[in-house]
Automatic annotation (TrEMBL):
The lineage of its organism: Bacteria, Bacillati, Actinomycetota, Actinomycetes, Kitasatosporales. Belongs to the multi antimicrobial extrusion (MATE) (TC 2.A.66.1) family. This is MATE family efflux transporter. Keywords: Cell membrane, Membrane, Transmembrane, Transmembrane helix, Transport. PANTHER family: PROTEIN DETOXIFICATION 44, CHLOROPLASTIC (PTHR42893:SF46), PROTEIN DETOXIFICATION 44, CHLOROPLASTIC-RELATED (PTHR42893). It comes from Streptomyces chromofuscus. Its main location: membrane. It is found in: Cell membrane. GO terms for cellular component: plasma membrane.
Length: 445
């Protein structure tokens, strides 16, 4: 006898509980991550301007290198969640181990590239003669932490797929505290300067990776899943992640083009752009938390052969995205006058940012839908479509953004172009969600 469907209100409440239980801890973990760089900056800043500038260059390089491989979390979450939905926990953990092995291989490859090329990379990013030695030192030491960072990404994906976002939050908070303590001890206590900051962060990162590995290995043993590397499984993880890599690189290209255009507008505009972009990125954490919940929940429903459940929770999360977007947009409008003086006293910079922030505020409901549907399609394993959609978005955004210095409108026009970019993403993702072609059920896609 089939079970009667839950009443609409009861189903919505169940979906809301699932979304909140996954999204809130995920938001905490996302916010904790950039605090690593913030803590390093606060500690290194007291060593001198050259050291702080060097840290800034090296951190930008490291952040770029690691963010390129964020697919390790996304693809692993979707694959593991499908197997959880299918009721096959050993296969779910086995899939997660494949992602972790892939992370270690990629991390080793990044080390092999970064160590010999560190001076050239620092020079490419425009470090001054004073900052370059410090940036090179920090980059070379921090490279040894990259495999750990990638393992953390993959293992976070495993736990998210297992519907656990609390453990990543606890690990992120513990890692942040350990990073701060180690940095102070090594930079000042041991007198190692910027090298001490790098070693402190590397140790904290490997500590986080070790905790994740203990959790995953314990789960593997309790369910009889193999821990050995499986070539076919690792290859499958890489193939699933490749479209998401294309998506991520396209998004990074959009952000780089926007920054390049802002630089051509003048010093006040590029300074204002950095402030606006920082706030835009902060707002994205709240929306990305809902997307992470979407990845885990959608994958589980599809793995359980429940396409209607996946469609229902997708609809509910879109409502969440719009509401949270409206709240964030309202907050930006209200807080603009108090927010800007925290970053600058230059009236020209504040004027440029003030108008651009209004555009950002108006675009937040659009961003909410984009982040949610991005998470839904990732959870469905619909990576190829996401890659093509982002390439199309890049093709639309690029000429429009490059015309801003010629047409005029300053930073406000540039952020209008950014809003156009998000609107194109929303349309492409909404059309895909509406088509139902992403509703592919089963333990594997």
């Amino acid at each position: 006898m089939t079970q009667a469907p839950a009443p609409p209100r009861t189903a919505r409440r169940r979906h809301d509980r699932e979304i909140v239980s996954l999204a809130v801890p995920a938001f905490g973990a996302l916010v904790a991550e950039p605090l690593f760089v913030l803590a390093d900056s606060a500690i290194v800043g007291h060593l001198g301007t050259g050291q702080l500038a060097g840290l800034g260059v090296a951190s930008a390089l490291l952040t770029t290198a690691v963010s390129v491989f964020v697919f390790l979390a996304y693809a692993t979450t979707a694959a593991v969640a499908r197997r959880v939905g299918a009721g096959d926990l050993p296969a779910a953990i086995r899939q997660g181990m494949d992602g972790i092995w892939l992370a270690l291989l990629l991390g080793a490859g990044v080390i092999a590239v970064v160590l010999p090329t560190a001076p050239s990379l620092v020079e490419l990013f425009g470090a001054s003669d004073t900052a370059a030695p410090y940036a090179t030192t920090y980059l070379r030491i921090s490279a040894f932490g990259i495999p750990a960072m990638l393992v953390v990404l993959a293992a976070t994906g495993v736990l998210r797929g297992l519907q656990d976002t609390k453990t990543p939050l606890y690990v992120a908070v513990a890692g942040f505290v350990a990073n701060g303590v180690l940095n102070v001890a090594l930079v000042y206590g041991a007198g190692l300067g910027i090298a001490g900051s790098a070693w402190g962060t590397v140790i904290a990162q490997w500590g986080m990776a070790a905790v994740y590995l203990v959790v995953v290995v314990r789960g593997a043993r309790s369910h009889g899943a193999s821990l050995r590397p499986d070539v076919a499984g690792i290859r499958a993880s890489a193939q699933a992640g490749t479209p998401l890599l294309v998506r991520t690189l396209s998004l990074r290209a959009i952000l780089m083009i926007a920054t390049g255009v802002a630089a051509r507008l003048g010093d006040a505009d590029i300074a204002a752009h950095q402030i606006v972009l920082s706030l835009w990125s902060l707002l994205a954490f709240a929306l990305d938390a809902i997307a992470i919940a979407g990845q885990a929940i959608i994958g589980r429903y599809l793995g359980a052969d429940d396409p209607q459940g996946a469609r229902d929770v997708c609809r509910r999360m879109m409502q969440w995205g719009v509401v949270v977007g409206l709240l964030l947009g309202t907050l930006v409008v209200v807080a603009r006058p108090a927010f800007l003086p925290l970053f600058t006293s230059d009236s020209a910079v504040k004027d440029a940012a003030l108008h651009a922030l209004l555009v950002v505020a108006l675009s937040q409901p659009i961003c909410g839908v984009v982040f949610v549907l991005d998470g839904v399609l990732m959870g469905a394993g619909d990576g190829p479509y996401l890659a093509w959609a982002m390439l199309l978005t890049l093709a639309v955004f690029t000429p429009v953004a490059l015309l801003v210095p010629t047409v005029g409108g300053g930073l406000t026009a540039l952020w209008a172009a950014m809003t156009l970019m998000m609107t194109v993403r929303m349309l492409t993702l909404w059309l895909r969600a509406r088509s139902g072609r992403w509703l592919v059920t089963g333990a594997t896609r």
